[in-house]
Design a protein that fits this description.
228 residues, 8 helices, single chain, 47% helix, four-stranded parallel beta sheet, alpha/beta
C-alpha cells in the first residue's frame, strides 16, 4: 500500500480517537515499526494533531536502498560471501531500474534469468518472472526531509544488529533533521541484543521483547505526557 494511503488511514484513526470523550485529543501519538516508521513521521509532518512519535527501526534511507542493504545482509547471514552479496545487489538494482522505467523488461529479465537458479536467489526477494512484478511507487521515497518536518517529541529505537537497514545512516538522518528544526526532544536508544524488531534471541514474540525497550518507552512516555 502506498505510504500516502497509510498516512490517510492513520489520520482517520487519530480523528476518531480525538472525537471520543474519554481520550485527551491533545495527547495522541503514533507508534511505528519498520515501514510504519516512515508513515508516522509523514503524518506528523503534515498534521498538528500528532503529539509525539515512538518509532522502532525508523529507516533514514529510501525503500530501494534499504532493500539492497537488507537482502545483501541476509545473504551474508546465511553464509554467502561478499561476491554473492554483490551479485544480489546487481540483480536487484537492474530490476529497480526497470521499475523506474530506465531499462526495458527484457534487460531486467535477462539479469534475473542469469541468477535465478543460484542457491542464494531467494534472498533477493524477487519473482523469477518479472511480468508479474507490481509497481513500487515509493521505492525512491526520501525520508530525510520528512524527518526534518517533524516538530514533536520523538523516541527512536534501533537494534544493534538490525538485519534490514543501516542504523548508523538512519540515526545520522534523524540527528541532521533535529538540527534543522531545532527539535531538542529527539531521543535515540540503541538496543543491545536486538535486530530489526526490539526482541531478543532472534525471536519475534511478546515474550522476547527487550526489557530495555519496555523500560525506556514507559519512562519516556511518562515524561512527555506529563510535560504536555
Amino acid at each position: 500500500m502506498p505510504l500516502d494511503d497509510q498516512v490517510e488511514d492513520a489520520m482517520r484513526v487519530v480523528r476518531e480517537l480525538s472525537a471520543r470523550s474519554d481520550i485527551d485529543g491533545g495527547l495522541i501519538g503514533l507508534w511505528g515499526f519498520s515501514q510504519g516508521a516512515w508513515v508516522a513521521p509523514l503524518a506528523a509532518s503534515r498534521s498538528s494533531e500528532i503529539a509525539f512519535l515512538v518509532l522502532v527501526a525508523s529507516t533514514g534511507v529510501s525503500p530501494a536502498t534499504q532493500m539492497l542493504y537488507g537482502t545483501a545482509k541476509h545473504a551474508r547471514m546465511a553464509g554467502f560471501g561478499d561476491d554473492v552479496a554483490a551479485r544480489l545487489v546487481h540483480v536487484r538494482t537492474e530490476v529497480d531500474e526497470f521499475r523506474r522505467g530506465h531499462i526495458g523488461l527484457e534487460a531486467a529479465q535477462a539479469a534475473v534469468d542469469a541468477v535465478k537458479s543460484e542457491p542464494w536467489f531467494s534472498f533477493a526477494h524477487l519473482p523469477q518472472d518479472l511480468g508479474v512484478i507490481g509497481v513500487w511507487p515509493d521505492m525512491d521515497f526520501n525520508p530525510v526531509p520528512i524527518f526534518a518536518g517533524v516538530h514533536v517529541p520523538v523516541l527512536l529505537f534501533y537494534g544493534e544488529d538490525d538485519e534490514w537497514q543501516p542504523i548508523d545512516a538512519s540515526i545520522e538522518a534523524w540527528r541532521w533533521a533535529a538540527k534543522q528544526t531545532k527539535n531538542r526532544d529527539v531521543t535515540i536508544v540503541r538496543l543491545p541484543g536486538t535486530g530489526h524488531a526490539p526482541t531478543l534471541g532472534g525471536l519475534e514474540s511478546v515474550e522476547a521483547v527487550s526489557p530495555d525497550y519496555e523500560r525506556a518507552m514507559l519512562d519516556w512516555l511518562a515524561r512527555v505526557t506529563r510535560a504536555r
